[in-house]
Design goal:
single chain, 263 residues, alpha+beta, Beta-Lactamase, 2 domains, five-stranded antiparallel sheet, 5 strands, 43% helix, elongated, MLTR_LBD, Cro/C1-type_HTH, Transcriptional regulator, Lambda_DNA-bd_dom_sf
């Protein structure tokens, strides 16, 4: 397979990310007129450069992945011009290696109590780390994901979604959900862009899953959200849950996912 994983940090990744967002931003979104003769539906490089107050040549160098210095003020103007949401803005700053005032702190320590709390919950619940490894889960979650949790010695949510045969049978609207999962994971990797473990994990998924590779190269970035999650359980049939996700106090890099059954 052609490896289009791109590195998780550095000039090349920054250029690819900006280019993807520029090409998806219609001129009318920034107050520019449209014309039937226009060859592209997105912004031109010179248009984005002008709106952001930088030279076209310099912006072109950024997109080309050249090693140029970029200030926080310039990144801020680019993010505003491209109407980036919070997740995309944070990811932009992380790729550039520039501190963003909105960046979340990371704490790599986890005490036993954080994992133990999962077992006190009545609904299917599990705890993820920054690479989306499942650190802990309770009995209802193991029953829902029977054949994966409790069987896989090192369960990982991304490996399950893209490499486990159970996923496409269990997760209703798998394609839609899996595509969003990639965009959410890309947003979160921005906070750990210099992690060799996560970088290698992305490369592995791109090589082993055509679907992951396709959606990863699309440069979509979405913040993690709750909402309805539906499953086709082999015993219980179709089940609908409302997903809630929390970060334990003092552990911003961990995610406690709860699936509350809808009645």
């Amino acid at each position: 397979m052609n490896n289009n994983s791109d590195s998780l940090n550095g000039p090349k990744a920054l250029g690819a990310f900006l280019r993807a967002h520029r090409e998806r931003t219609p001129p009318q979104a920034v107050g520019l007129p449209t014309s039937p003769r226009r060859r592209t539906s997105g912004l031109r490089r010179e248009e984005l450069a002008q709106i952001s107050g930088i030279s076209t040549t310099w912006y072109t160098w950024i997109e080309q992945g050249r090693d140029v210095s970029i200030s926080a003020a310039t990144l801020d103007r680019l993010a505003i011009a491209l109407h980036m949401q919070v997740a995309a803005r944070e990811y932009l700053f992380s790729l550039a290696g520039v501190k963003d005032p909105l960046a979340r702190p990371a704490d790599n320590d986890m005490d036993k109590a954080v994992g133990d709390c999962v077992h006190q919950l009545a609904c299917p619940s599990y705890l993820l780390d920054s690479a989306w490894n499942v650190l802990a889960w309770n009995s209802p979650a193991e029953q829902l994901f029977a054949g994966w949790l409790g069987v896989d010695p090192q369960p990982n949510l991304l490996r399950f979604m893209f490499l486990h045969p159970l996923a496409t049978r269990l997760v209703i609207n798998w394609s839609q959900r899996a595509k969003r999962v990639v965009a959410e994971f890309r947003a979160e990797t921005g906070h750990y862009a210099h992690s060799d473990i996560i970088r290698q994990w992305v490369m592995t998924l791109c090589n082993e899953s055509e679907a992951f590779n396709l959606w990863w190269t699309q440069q979509e970035v979405l913040g993690r959200e709750g909402g309805e999650r539906r499953f086709q359980h082999p015993i219980r049939g179709e089940i609908a849950y409302r997903q809630q996700t929390f970060s334990p106090a003092g552990h911003a890099e961990f995610k406690l996912v709860m699936l509350v059954e809808q009645v």
